[in-house]
Amino acid sequence: MLAGLLATAGATHFIVPRVYDDIVPSRLPGDQRTWTYASGVAELACAAAIAVPKTRRAGAFATAALFAAVFPANVKMAYDWRHGPQPWRAVVFGRLPLQAPLIGWALKVAKDADGR
User: Fold this and answer.
1) Transferase: present as a keyword of the record (predicted)?
2) Helix H segments across the chain?
3) Could you tell me the pTM of the whole model?
4) Domain of 33?
5) Given this model, what pLDDT does residue 52 score?
6) Separation between Cα atoms, residue 35 and residue 66, nearest integer Å
7) C-alpha–C-alpha distance, residues 62 and 68, integer Å
8) pLDDT value at position 54?
9) Residue 64 gets which letter from DSSP?
10) CA nearest 71: which of 41, 37, 96?
11) What pLDDT tens digit does each residue of the chain (116 aa) get?
């Protein structure tokens, strides 16, 4: 399931990149679209690694790191939408605490891949 989530999210970086461009923190050097595509590739690579038993453990650890690395983009999105319409504010602020269980899920996949 985690691989499917990552594959879907990664694909959307290429299907609707503007959504992701808008949440790239401005402090990052370079073009927003480059970061959007790079994070999409990272998600697709993590999905592929998790899908293959031989690389599942490494892929799951990479996924946990990726989930932590993209957290600043989620914070930026929440900040940008702090005055937006209520349904969207609830969504973007609700995403923030979900990052911890996603990281936990990835770590559990890594642990299970070890057979422990």
Assistant:
1) no
2) 2-15, 17-21, 32-51, 56-69, 71-80, 86-113
3) 0.90
4) 2-113
5) 96
6) 13
7) 10
8) 96
9) H
10) 96
11) 999 999 999 999 999 999 999 999 989 999 999 999 999 999 999 999 999 999 999 999 999 999 999 999 999 999 998 999 998 899 999 989 999 999 999 999 999 997 75
**CA–CA dist 106, 89 (Å, integer):** 26
Total count of domains within the chain: 1
Tokens of 83: 């005055």
CA atoms within 13 A on the CB side of 86: 0
Q: Would you say how long the chain is, in residues? A: 116
For the record, the structure tokens of 16 come out as 């609707």
Tokens 């959307």 -> residue? 12
